Amino acid sequence: MKLKSLVLAMVAGAALMAQGAGAATVNRTIPVVTADDGLGGFNAHFGDTFAQSTSGSTFTDTFTFDVGTPFDAAASLTSSYLNTPQTKDLLITGLSLYRYDPVTKAMLGTAIAGVNGTGSAVDAPDSWSLSGYGLTSGSYVIQVNGEVRGVGGGAFGADLTISPVPEPQTWGMLLAGLGVLTTLAWRRRQPARVHIRRR
Question: What is the C-alpha to C-alpha distance for residues 147 and 149, in angstroms, rounded to an integer?
Fold first, then answer.
């Protein structure tokens, strides 16, 4: 009887270990390759692909980039996957943007959470977006979280647009210039005055 209990315990333990081995967490950190937009900002395209060997895993991909001036940011993400019967093979569960310390990797401040715009159809491809305004210069991360649920794996692709925010001095100069132009336009519309000398 003891031998039978021991064998059953070993089989159960092996099953749990096999199940735990498939449920690994995949963490990747990848620098974003940027393309200058010619206007002081940049654009970037990035993503990741998951094979059958990662089935049953959760993942966290962090895409890093640096910005030297205050900026506005917008990002969007879509997924594609093979659809194993009754399983959406790749599921995106989160998209966020945050500032971080490149030495300690710690998050600085609060993350900007993405909005899940995935359609309501059964197993619709994931669609996420986010935007942030008036962000300070520094090191940033776009983080993508998800699950590889089926053997078909899948992929996601994302894009990022960074636009510089004019500094307060620039706004002041712009407003002063508009004031000068308004004054000049007003003077031009005034009728010419003729001065008559009296004797």
Answer: 6
User: How many C-beta neighbours within 10 Å does residue 138 have?
Assistant: 16
Side chain identity at residue 189, one-letter code? R
Write the pLDDT tens digit of every residue in 146-178: 999 888 889 999 999 999 987 665 556 667 777
Strands in the chain per DSSP E: 25-31, 34-36, 42-50, 58-67, 71-81, 90-100, 107-113, 115-116, 127-135, 138-148, 154-164
**R_g of the chain, CA atoms, integer Å:** 28
Q: What SS3 state is found at 23?
A: coil
Q: What is the CATH number of domain 23-179?
A: 2.60.120
Residue 103 φ/ψ, nearest 5 degrees: -85, -50
Residue positions counted in the chain: 199
**3-class SS shares of the chain: helix, strand, coil, % to 5:** 25, 45, 30
Are 112 and 169 contacting, i.e. CB atoms less than 8 angstroms apart?
A: no
User: What are the angstrom distances between the C-alpha of 9 and each of 21, 36, 136?
Assistant: 18, 60, 57
Low-confidence ranges of the chain (pLDDT < 70): 1-23, 167-174, 186, 190-199
Given a contact cutoff of 8 angstroms between Cβ atoms, the answer to whether 5 and 39 are in contact is no
How many alpha carbons lie under 13 Å from residue 127 in its C-beta half-sphere?
A: 8
